[in-house]
Amino acid sequence: MRLLILHRVTDKMIRYASGIDHEAHDVTYVGPADRLATLPADLRCTRIERPGTGDTATEVLAAVAGLPPFDSVISLAEFDLIAAAQVRTALGVPGDHEADVLPWRDKVVMKSAVAAAGLRVPRFLSLSEALDAEDDELPWAHETVLKPLDGAASLNVHVYPTLAGALAAVREAGLPEGTEQNGFEVEEFITGPIVHVDGLVVDGKLAVVKASRYIGTCLGYADGTPLGSVQIDLTPELNQWATECLAAVGISTSLFHLEGIETADGPVFLEVGARFGGADVVDTFELATGVHLPSRYLQLITDGLDVGSYTWPDGDEPHYGWFIWPGHRLGSELCRIEGERAFRESPLVHRWIQRSESDPVKTTLSYVDTDVPLAGIVGPAGSAELDRFLREAFSSIRVEPATPPGGDADENQA
Predict the structure, then answer these.
(1) Tell me, what's the pLDDT at 307?
(2) Which residues of the chain have pLDDT under 70?
(3) Where in the chain is the domain with CATH 3.30.470.20?
(4) I need a surface site. Which of 62, 140, 152, 298 has the fewest CB within 10 A?
(5) Is the dihedral angle over the CA atoms 296, 302, 308, 310 positive or is it negative?
(6) Separation between Cα atoms, residue 116 and residue 102, nearest integer Å
(7) What is the C-alpha to C-alpha distance for residues 258 and 195, in angstroms, rounded to an integer?
(8) Which CATH class is domain 2-95?
(9) What confidence score (pLDDT) does residue 409 get?
(10) Residues with Cβ < 8 Å from 310, sequence gap 6 or more?
């Protein structure tokens, strides 16, 4: 086959050579220079650089203009799913097109589909619809979340005490620069632990899957607090809920990352994507199951093998967890970490990545281990033991701005 790959996520994460037989297939990678540089130098493939500054689909189409037809267009990056669909349509390549992908990216379309399937979702409105409604027409009054329709990592997400307060804030202060009203929604805030279910679904059936529970929240991480998750037992009820959620949005053969809120009446749908989870979800999944999700999915869709030919875990795997401290709210490229020694030396620690006081961290939001002050993996152990370890670490370890050698702390944080 001739494969066109929209290359954004590093090869270290995807392991393209493990998932695709580059001798059997003609593979063309299109991506910005820094992304292409992550591919192995000896990989048999065509590499085409795009600027990475404009519309992705437009840049990709310009890059491949005049090339022979492709049999498949592939993207494993969340932000490129719509672009890949647009490229397929423009090139006449079979596969998911924009209408198919929209329920995986647009949170209003997504929750509408899940609600139509009879599953519980938070009450929600597009921001435009909410702003146009009279006060007595609003379906709820209490705590409210304002979020982008296609957002990720809780960027530009805000929580307000009331729906009226959220709408008043938008009317008075407006939206973040570069965003538009029709790109946001409001939804009721539902309290409860958040679970995520990850894996690979094939022909509508969960082929390999793990469930986890967050310690902290993605919104809290965006605001500057540590985040982690711990794998938990997948109950039959949670398995069935995940299957029904995926079917509702039309994810039938794909990687998936699904999130829900645990309540006394069962899980409430939060969001789903046809992608692998961020942070160290892929690594902890592989440790527990032996399955590397991105490369195994590529192998499945390019080799055309029946899922029955694979050996999948039997579900009785050990549990792992991951943790990460953000650096984007420090106000400094350098950090000082205190109170971590006892945790670092724990036998529960599988991997520990820590910046020194002279090693800069990334000042924009990132879930990549090498960008942040502190991150790692724990396990194998029981869920309760891992949960307790992370909670104690989060309450004990301090990550603070550090003064550069010869510098002044106040100036550094100005």
Answers:
(1) 62
(2) 305-312, 314-315, 404-414
(3) 194-401
(4) 62
(5) negative
(6) 16
(7) 8
(8) alpha beta
(9) 44
(10) 207, 296, 300
Q: What angle do CA 34, 37, 39 make, to 5 degrees?
A: 130
> CA-to-CA distance for 76 and 78, rounded, in angstroms?
6
- Cα separation, 242 vs 256, in Å, equals 10
Whole-number pLDDT of residue 308 = 62
Enter the tokens of residue 73.
């267009």
User: Can you read off the two tokens belonging to residue 322?
Assistant: 């991951």
With CA atoms as reference, report the closest residue to 378 among 228, 277, 259, 232: 228
Angle among Cα 381, 366, 190 to the nearest 5 degrees reads 70
* Per-residue pLDDT at 404: 64
- Which amino acid is present at 360? P
Q: Strands 194-202 and 184-188: what pairing?
A: unpaired
Residue 259 near residue 281, CB atoms below 8 Å:
no
Closest CA to 143 of 126, 125, 120, 166: 166
Closest CA to 93 of 201, 6, 15: 6
Taking the complete model, does pTM exceed 0.70, yes or no? Answer: yes
The pLDDT value recorded for residue 155 is 81
- Predicted local distance difference test score (pLDDT) of residue 407: 53
CA-CA-CA-CA dihedral for 49, 55, 61, 64, to nearest 10: 0
Bond prior to 148 in cis (omega within 30° of 0): no
The 3-state DSSP class for residue 356 equals coil
> Residue 239 and residue 74: Cα distance in Å, rounded?
27
Can you give the pLDDT at residue 414? 34
Using DSSP's 3-state secondary structure scheme, residue 186 falls into strand
153 Rama class: left (phi>0) / alpha (psi -120 to 50) / beta? left
Query: What secondary structure letter does DSSP report for 154?
Result: T
Has domain 194-401 been given CATH number 3.30.420.10?
A: no
CATH fold group of domain 123-188: Dna Ligase; domain 1 (3.30.1490)
What sign has the CA pseudo-torsion 133, 136, 137, 141? positive
- CA-to-CA separations, 168 to 5, 35, 122, in angstroms, rounded: 44, 41, 21
315 Ramachandran zone, left/alpha/beta (phi>0; psi -120 to 50): left
For residue range 124-142, list pLDDT tens digits in order. 999 999 999 988 889 999 9
> CATH 3.30.1490 region(s) of the chain?
123-188
Q: Are 67 and 47 in contact (CB under 8 A)?
A: no
Radius of gyration of the chain from its Cα atoms, rounded to whole angstroms: 22
